[in-house]
């Protein structure tokens, strides 16, 4: 036979534990429900940044192409040389 004080304690603690576990369950479910939408939002931002990064890499590649630089050189003040002179030194430029 279970003693009466233990039965009284069980009658008091069982409903309290049920309420505490129910509230905890609600908090966990609410957290998990909002975490999914937060994760989706972060994944979309990551995809957008990856796409933007790819476009910037393409822009850099196009802007640094030799053809584009050759076409833009005259408007920037660069001239095509009339003749090229090579200097061939038999001795080094700097000596100790």
Structural features, described:
The chain crosses the membrane at residues 6-32. Keywords: Membrane, Transmembrane, Transmembrane helix. This is Cell division protein FtsL. This protein is 70% helix and 0% strand. With 96 residues, it is an all-alpha fold. It has one domain (4-76).
SSE layout and pairings?
Elements: H1 4-63, H2 66-72
What is the domain tally?
A: 1
Rough outline: rod-shaped
Q: The biggest beta sheet, please?
A: none
Label the structural class.
Answer: mainly alpha
Number of strands: 0
State the distance separating the first and last CA atoms. 107 Å
Portion in beta strands: under 5%
Order of helices and strands: HH
Relative helix content = 55-70%
Rg is 38 Å
What's the overall average pLDDT, rounded?
Answer: 88
Residue stretches low in confidence (pLDDT < 50, at least 5 long) are: none
Q: Given the structure, what is the number of helices?
A: 2
Transmembrane segments: 6-32
Keywords: Membrane, Transmembrane, Transmembrane helix
Organism: Candidatus Chisholmbacteria bacterium RIFCSPHIGHO2_01_FULL_48_12
Protein name: Cell division protein FtsL
